[in-house]
Design goal:
The chain is an alpha/beta fold. 62% of the residues lie in helices and 9% in strands. The strands form two sheets. Strands 6-7-8-3-9-10 form a six-stranded mixed sheet, sandwiched between helices. A four-stranded antiparallel sheet has the order 2-1-4-5, with helices on one face. The two termini are 43 Å apart.
Length: 621
């Protein structure tokens, strides 16, 4: 079986690299220009003062070439009059020479000012847009992160937040080039409008060609996003501590390297195919532009030879034609680049346009500081968007204050889905979830989450200090070492932390230099410490002792009563030694509550729970 059959063919190797890539139509390209105002607003929000300084510097710098040509023409005319007609130099002659020197000095200084402003704007924009991106991503629904299409959009948005910094410089350059072009074109137009028309006409074909390939590049980049995500994933598989063991023992390196090489080759062929076409066609169109410049240049020289214009005027016009020709080409090329950049920015703006559906309604109620009646599921059913299969079907149960409930069932029965519904990470497809008799959607989300503590089986292992890893349970307590240490003591994590070189100040993990990694069980104790620090009214534990050995598990659950004292708790576990400590056990089967009761009661019934218990108990006999 080929690697393509195993992993897929996201890059589309069978397609012609250059010809089968869809290119946006002109209407779409022009619509993309609407992205420029909101992006410029982001730039303004990031650094308004620097933006004004940048724009002012560029406009002044743009007017200097024409000013220098005009001053130079006056100097040459005065010298010619002195040599040919013995006319004395005007009294302001040396002032003109000084002015030309001053203009050259100002231009040199302005270029450095512009570079400084560009760098400052780029840095501030990147920081501003990255922070905004992080905030927006954090506010989106959990459901979004379970959608591969969303991940493609998120990946493109992340890239655009940094790669499109160049658009700031390009936009400023366009303004400067436009002002320079208009000023030089005005000088040419006064002498002969046809010269200006000829210059522009010869540049337009090159502009259209550059624009076509610029937009073709966007289409290619858009198409390649899934393949580039696969490359990132393959790099991750081939270079992480977690994957190193299986990589070696299962001999996966040739397979992963081969697959990476295949996908990278596909992307290379596509990119080079477009670049090759751009080289051939762009070279031909560039020759047309050069012909336009030298044609007008020759025309001016001819008029000078036959005496229609003076040498000073010829020098002025040839300078203006040369400057205008290069700037007209630059304006068209820069505009094409901006249109290309604007099309790329569509991804970022579309990401910002994604709005969460699970939000606090206006005037939402604060969560009760003392829950009186508890939570209630009333005929709750749930299906993921786009799917007709119900994960949960007509589920009803109550969780009263101070009650401990355990949920058991085989994998895929909806146990974790109940947790996500109870914490309002999802909203039910049908039915209601009540808190103290009111629909969960009536409460303010942030206020609700403040009263809930959760330890997921796949809890996060933050590459931060041990203290910070515990503090994430209630981040506002991050500067309270007494509470953090108390939580570590209760979860039995303190023993492991004390053995670390820097104790609670030790950076954990393996990403950063000097960091120390923990065992799975030690990490789990850190996660349980977060629950102690959280001190919430509802505590949810999703397989909280999965990585612990038997002795550690016994020690943790000796303190389980202390952790859940006076609180509602919901426990998900496959270990029946753990769930039997609950007041009530819910047994999920096929998305429904098949049985519920205490451990001994469910064993006597002899149903699904008893069957699962016997299967697990048999392993210890």
């Amino acid at each position: 079986m080929s690697t393509r059959a195993l992993v897929g063919n996201p890059a589309g190797k069978d397609a012609n690299p250059a010809e089968d890539i869809p290119s946006p139509r002109w209407a779409e390209r022009l619509r993309a220009l609407r992205n420029i105002p909101p992006v410029m607003k982001y730039v303004w929000d990031a650094a308004p003062g620097v933006a004004v300084a940048n724009l002012t510097s560029r406009v002044v710098a743009a007017l200097i070439p024409l000013s220098m040509l005009a001053v130079g023409r006056m100097i040459l005319a005065a010298i010619y009059a002195l040599r040919a007609d013995h006319t004395p130099l005007p009294h302001y002659f040396w002032g003109l020479v000084t002015l030309e020197f001053a203009l050259a000095g100002i231009a040199a200084v302005l270029m450095r000012v512009i570079d400084f402003c560009d760098t400052t704007l780029a840095e501030r924009f990147m920081k501003h847009i990255s922070v905004r991106l992080m905030k927006h991503a954090a506010n989106l629904d959990l459901m979004s992160y379970e959608d591969p299409v969303f991940y493609d959009k998120l990946e493109r948005a992340r890239v655009q937040s940094t790669d499109r910094v160049q658009m700031i410089k390009i936009s400023g350059r366009l303004i400067q080039e436009t002002v320079t072009t208009v000023s030089l074109a005005a000088g040419i137009f006064v002498y002969s409008p046809w010269l200006l028309i000829a210059l522009v006409a010869c540049v337009v074909p090159a502009f259209l060609g550059e624009t076509h390939f610029a937009f073709l590049g966007y289409s290619l980049s858009f198409q390649q996003t899934p393949a580039r995500r696969e490359l990132d994933y393959l790099r991750l598989l081939g270079g992480t501590k977690e994957g190193a063991k299986e990589l070696k023992l299962f001999g996966l390196a040739p397979f992963l390297v081969g697959r990476y090489s295949d996908v990278a080759t596909e992307l290379h062929d596509q990119t080079i195919g477009v670049a090759r076409h751009r080289l051939y066609i762009g070279a031909l169109l560039a020759i047309v532009g050069v012909a336009g410049y030298y044609g007008t240049y020759a025309f001016v020289i001819y008029h000078t030879v036959i005496g229609l214009i003076s040498i000073a005027t010829m020098i002025f016009l040839t300078g203006a034609i040369g400057g205008a020709s290069s700037n007209i080409q630059a304006v068209f090329t820069t505009f094409s680049e901006i249109a290309n950049q604007a099309l790329f920015m569509t991804d970022l703006l579309e990401f910002f346009a994604v709005k969460p559906k699970i939000i606090s309604k206006p005037g939402a109620l604060p969560a009760p500081k003392k829950i009186q009646q508890g939570f209630e599921f009333k005929n709750v059913s749930f299906a993921y968007p786009g799917s007709s299969r119900m994960i949960l079907k007509n589920v009803s149960f109550k969780l009263a204050p101070s009650e401990r409930i355990a949920i058991v069932g085989e994998n895929g029965q909806g146990k974790t889905t109940i947790v996500k519904l109870l914490t309002r990470l999802y909203d039910p497809t049908e039915g209601q979830i009540l808190l103290d008799g009111k629909d969960l959607r009536e409460y303010d989300l942030e206020s609700l989450w403040q009263e809930i503590g959760v330890i997921f089986q796949d809890f996060m292992r933050y590459e931060m200090t041990a203290s910070a890893n515990i503090a994430v349970g209630r981040i506002e307590e991050r500067n309270n070492p007494f509470r953090i240490r108390a939580a570590a003591n209760k979860s039995l994590a303190e023993q492991a932390i004390r053995r670390l070189p820097k104790g609670f100040d030790q950076v954990l993990g393996s990403r950063f230099k000097g960091a120390v990694d923990l065992s799975g069980g030690e990490w789990q104790k850190i996660a349980i410490a977060r629950a102690y620090l959280r001190d919430a009214q509802l505590l949810i534990l999703d397989e909280p002792t999965a990585a612990l050995d038997a002795r550690s598990e016994h020690e943790v659950f000796q303190r389980f009563s202390e952790l859940t004292e006076g609180k509602m708790s919901l426990l998900i576990s496959h270990r029946f030694s753990t769930v039997k400590m609950s007041n009530r056990i819910l047994v999920l089967k096929d998305g429904e509550i098949a049985e519920q009761g205490q451990h001994d009661q469910l064993l006597k019934v002899g149903g699904h729970y008893a069957e699962m218990f016997e299967l697990q108990a048999a392993n210890y006999r």
